[in-house]
Structure formats: C-alpha cells, structure tokens
Write a structure and sequence with these properties.
This protein has 366 residues and is of the alpha/beta class. It contains 13 helices and 17 strands. It has a single domain, classed as Glycosidases (TIM Barrel), CATH 3.20.20. Helices cover 36% and strands 18% of the residues. The strands form four sheets. Strands 1-2-4-8-9-10-12-15 form an eight-stranded parallel barrel, surrounded by four helices. The chain has a three-stranded mixed beta sheet with strand order 11-14-13. α7 links the parallel β8 and β9. The termini are close together.
C-alpha cells in the first residue's frame, strides 16, 4: 500500500483578505464561523477547537511551516491546495500558496485543486459557492442586492494562457506533484470549455518540457464528463448521501425551509464509499475519502452532519480503501480534508482527539 498516496485537501481561507472583509466583515476568515458554532441537537460536538487554541493565520510563514512539519511527521502524502481563479482579472486566497512557492525550505508536496465557480450570496439561485451562510444572514444581505460576489468566467484561449502562466512557476517547483512528468491539477466543475482549456494547457506544458498536464475532474453525473477523462469522487458528498437524491429532494421541497440538521451515519457513508470503490471498473476514476463531516458552523440548522466518527474507524476504513486502490493499481486518494474546520473535516489536532486522527492516518498505511 506504500504506493498509494493519500492527499489531504487544504483550505487557504484562514487569513484576512480584502474580499473577506468586504463580504462578511472586517477580520473574517473561516475561524469566525468555527468559533461561533453552537450545538444544535443532543450530543452535537460544537464548537470544534484546535488543540491549545491554535487559531493560525495562513498569511504567516511560520504557521504554514508548522503545518508542513506536522503533515510530514505523520506521513501525509501532500496537500491539494484549493485554487480560486475566477478570471484573468480576479483571483482570491492566493497568499498561502505564494508563501510556499517563495520559501523552498517549506518541505511539503502540493498541487492545486481549482474550485472554478462564482462566489455568491446564500439566498441566490445562481450556481456557485455560498461561503458563509450564517454570516450572510447576520449581515442582513438584502435579497434585492447583488447575487454574485465574485463572478467566475471561463474565458477564452487568451485567458487560459494567462492562467497557465500564473501556474507555471508552481508546476516547475520540485515540490509540485507530478504524475509521469505531468503536473497534477484538479478541476471541480467540468464543462466543454474546461476540456478545451485542458487540451490547450497540455500543449503549453509540453512546450515547457513537461509530458503534459494531469487534469482530474470532480465526478458529477450532471456535468457529462467524458468516460475518457480522469475524475475523482469528492467525499463524503457523493457516496455519503448522494447529490442526485439531494437534488430531487430540493426539487420537491422547493418552498420548504429546512429547520433541522440532516444527520448521517459515519459507518453508512464509509461503507458506501468502500462498496462504490470495490465495484468500480473505470480505470480513470480515483476515489475520495473523508475524516468526518459537519458543516453546521457555516450553515446552522440547514447543515449536514455525519455522526459516529472515531479515529479507530477512520483508520480501518482508510486502510480498506488503500487496499482496494493497491489491488486496482490506483495511486491516489483525495482526502477531505487537512483543515476544513468549518465543515468538520480535518486531520489537524483538536481539543478533543488531539493527534489521534493523524496517528490513525499514519497507521492506515501499515
């Protein structure tokens, strides 16, 4: 199983930015939502607290160094850093990756995962990410105001070239993850244009001495991803409770407001992930995994929570998924997450479990 690399997804939303200040108030980062979380049902473990009250700031090199050292100690294969490129004119949350690029002594393998979607208000019907629903409500964002906070634009070949040029110094970095000489790059939202862009990038990468770009899309049955494209399942959202089922439910409950947190069994979610992996015959599909999940810090009673997680269960399930990947000759697993505190999905030590989940991650490779 030593050939199976488990990459932990890495959220850069833990430092003050102009966008955060403008949309959700001065000093906002995901820590604000995490700290304000409250228990919403009996036995609900909120708020989550980092061990020793370590609410780090990812605009500081020393905090990123500390994370990199911790990940290396416990054998984390690398970070999949969320990448927010909206257009040639607008990018966000770039500072943590810039710090890694600028400081070659930060010992951490990494790659980018492009969350290519608009940022929008929670109440908006347009497609995109609603980052902080509870903060939206507290700020009293009027529904007559702007629906889109930052618009994502797919652009043209000229824009794709600018994006590639931005990424090139990262691709050339020795720490950037390569697959057979191809820089690894995840894309969350497939479209025919992203496929054209990937083909164009492939030519540019070859001209720069790479074997191409290893583009992997987040699987979504509604996006019509070609069977020939490489893809991964972002967990627990797909196997856990099914976006198709959720989408149908929203269609029939369009005018019904969710008033209670939706809860799911940790064992049920993981067993579905394992079952899906076992019966998968698509050589182009990579699997996802997750530590735990609870997005109520962001969504309150409209959130989802997976209940029953323990370090021992996490270790056992991740080991089983590693074994499946090893038998199927699949080298990667994408883990949610290193530090998604606002969604209760993190490997980092907290005040309850300390280092137990990191120890479980390490043990799962044995």
């Amino acid at each position: 199983m030593d050939k199976v690399k488990v990459f932990a997804m890495y959220l850069p939303q833990y430092h003050e930015t102009e966008e955060n200040n403008r949309f959700w108030g001065k000093g906002f980062s995901d820590w604000v939502s995490v700290k304000k979380a409250v228990p919403l049902f009996d036995g609900h473990d909120q708020p989550k607290k980092p061990l020793d009250g370590y609410y780090y700031d990812l605009s500081k090199k020393e905090d990123i160094v500390r994370q990199a050292e911790l990940a290396k100690k416990y054998g984390v294969s690398g970070f999949g850093i969320y990448h927010y490129w909206f257009s040639s004119e607008k990018q966000a949350l770039t500072r943590p990756a810039e710090i890694i690029l600028e400081n070659k002594d930060i010992d951490v393998p990494f790659f980018f995962a492009w969350d290519n979607a608009s940022w929008k208000r929670t109440w908006s019907s347009v497609k995109g990410n609603d980052w902080s629903p509870l903060m939206d409500e507290k700020k009293g964002a009027a529904e007559s105001g702007p629906e889109i906070l930052i618009e994502y634009k797919e652009g043209t070949e000229k824009d794709w070239k600018k994006h590639f040029d931005f990424l090139l110094p990262y691709f050339k970095d020795e720490r950037y993850i390569k697959d057979s000489g191809k820089p690894l790059f995840l894309i969350y939202n497939y479209s025919p244009d992203t496929e054209k862009m990937a083909a164009y990038w492939n030519k540019l990468a070859v001209s720069e001495g790479f074997a191409g770009v290893e583009v992997v899309y987040s699987y979504n049955p509604f996006h019509g991803i070609p069977s020939s494209a490489k893809k991964f399942r972002y967990e627990p959202l797909y196997s856990g409770w099914g976006r198709f089922i959720d989408r149908l439910g929203r269609l029939f409950r369009r005018h019904k407001v969710q008033t209670e947190v939706k809860t799911y069994s940790y064992d049920d979610v993981w067993e579905r992930i394992i079952a899906n992996a076992r019966r998968c015959r698509d050589k182009n599909t990579y699997y996802g995994a997750f530590v735990s999940y609870d997005d109520t810090p962001r969504r309150g009673s409209k959130g989802k929570a997976v209940l029953g997680a323990t370090p021992e269960k996490f270790c056992g399930y991740l080991r089983r998924l590693r074994e499946i990947c090893s038998r199927q000759g699949k080298n990667y697993i994408f883990l949610t997450a290193w530090n998604e505190w606002g969604e209760g999905a993190y490997l980092e030590p907290d005040s309850v479990s300390a280092y137990a989940y990191l120890e479980a991650y390490q043990k799962s490779a044995e």
